[in-house]
Amino acid sequence: MKKVVVASLLAVSAISAFSVSPFAASVALAQDAAAPAAGQVQMPPAEFAVYDNAVNKQTTPQTQAPAIEDYLKQFPQSAVKADVLQRLMVAYVAFDHAKAIDAADRLLQVDPGNLRALTFEVFLRREASDALTDPAAKQSALDAAADYAQKGLAAPQPKGMSDADYTALKATATPIFQSAVGASALGKKDYPAAITAFKAELAAMPVAATQQPGQALQDTYFLGQAYYASTPPDLVNCTFYATRAASFAPDNFKAQLQPLATYCYKKYHGGTDGYEAVTAAAQANLNPPAGFSIVPAPTAADIVAKTIASTPDLSTLALSDKEYIIQNGKPEDADKVFATVKGKSVEIPDGVVVDGSTVDKVLVSVSDDAVQGKVADFTFNMKTPLKAVPAVGTKITLQGVYASYTQSPVMLVMSDGEEVVKKAAPAHRAPARHK
User: Fold this and answer.
1) Do residues 42 and 86 share a domain?
2) What CA–CA distance (Å, rounded) separates 244 from 265?
3) Fewer C-beta within 10 Å: the chain N or C terminus?
């Protein structure tokens, strides 16, 4: 009988013998002393010869993988099956990720709580999802990775594994697990779950690692997206995390990440002034520090109050300002402004027809917000029926008399409406030529 020392550290053979992927190396360098791992196993000479050839004699992943497969085929009930499957998994990840996943599946059948196998499952399935373009297939792949991640997060410390080894393995695995959970939740629009997972991922990593190009920096951006997509949107946290991601991103990616940060800041603050302070805080802190805040933009009520206080004669306000006050001001302020125009005739050029279904009444968009929202903010009750029903989306110039209004939704009602037909330019005749 031959005695085989079952390595608790895959690096003993898998890494020292040949180069593997950086991911495999980072996982393999964390010890996994699951029983009957660290220790000696009695093995018959015939089996040992096949084992020794597969484990110790091969110099490349491409040759070790088939040698291990041959060993497992000849000795399917091997006492070192789990250890050998771990070696097989690391060998395959260097050149065939699909077979690496298959090896991880087989290892989990032998050892359901194997943290290294669960880590490989999550990382490789997440990687495979990136290549999928069909949304349903992509989400299914993300969900599968997240399921393995949840198992990994719940897995207990293996028997026989030292606290130091377990801590090292968890330090590598936890960010991978949380990232997968966050990606799955984000894809399903479960924003609270995505936020929790992404923050747990970042908290499990050295701060310096969150500043380098890679999954953590990308997930920092996704964290900002999750805050923005929440109900209601959390624009402050969106600004912070999107800014942090953009700040540390390589130059060729900054242009893709910065717009979300700028949008959330402007949406909340009302402009870009003061953004430098946000950038400084985001670069210096993983999460918003105590006391971090962004000054909110003035509310509509604030703008109305300031406008009225600074305008002695409200009749001099532009039409857009009058409509803004009527829509957003206190009822008494709206009444004051409307009183300056009530009963007066006005011509409204280039209103966009929203509803021209009758010749007796036309609903048009006049303000920029109404035009962008494709909603009416003026109703013209025609003095005489139009000759033809105007097409929706066309521009029309109308005149009428301010009659009444409603605040929400804002609607200015005009009486004695008439279409203003632009006069054709006079024809210019060439002067007569004199012979």
Assistant:
1) yes
2) 13
3) C
Is residue 396 domain-resident? yes
What is the end-to-end Cα distance of the chain in Å, rounded? 130
pLDDT digits (tens, 9 = 90+) for 16-67: 333 445 555 455 544 343 334 445 788 999 999 999 999 999 999 999 999 9
Last residue in a domain, options 297, 312, 346:
297
Rounded-to-5 percentages of helix, strand, coil across the chain: 55, 10, 35
Q: How far apart are CA 324 and CA 299, in angstroms?
A: 12
CA distance 91 to 14: 7
Q: Are 197 and 220 contacting, i.e. CB atoms less than 8 angstroms apart?
A: no
Cβ count within 10 A of residue 121: 26
Same domain, 139 and 11: yes
- Provide the 3-class DSSP secondary structure of residue 328: helix
- Omega of the bond prior to 36 within 30 degrees of 0, cis? yes
For the chain, how many structural domains are there in total?
A: 3
What residues are paired with 401 via a beta bridge? 345, 415
Q: Distance between CA atoms of 260 and 162, rounded to whole angstroms?
A: 45
Do 169 and 211 reside in the same domain of the chain? no
Say if CB 114 and CB 82 are below 8 A apart: yes
* Residue 192, domain member (yes or no): no
CA dihedral 149, 151, 152, 154 (to 10 degrees): 120
Q: How many helices (H) and strands (E) does the chain have?
A: 18, 7
Same domain, 34 and 82: yes
Q: Which domain holds residue 163?
A: 2-184
Identify the domain boundary among 272, 297, 322: 297
- 305 and 291 fall within a common domain: no
Q: Give yes or no: residues 103 and 130 share one domain.
A: yes
d(CA 43, CA 33): 19
Return d(Cα 419, Cα 278) in angstroms, integer: 52
CB 412 within 8 A of CB 326: yes
pLDDT per residue as tens digits for the range 137-170? 999 999 999 999 999 999 999 888 899 999 999 9
Give me the residue label for tokens 């004669």: 313
Query: How remote is the C-alpha of 112 from its chain's centroid?
Result: 32
* CATH number where 97 lies: 1.25.40.10
Amino acid at 196: T
Query: Helix, strand, or coil here: 349?
Result: strand
Q: Are residues 229 and 311 in the same domain?
A: no
Claim: this prediction has a pTM higher than 0.90: no
Closest CA to 386 of 410, 364, 408, 411: 364
> Residue 122 contacts by C-beta under 8 Å, 6 or more apart in sequence?
145, 148, 149, 152, 176, 177, 180
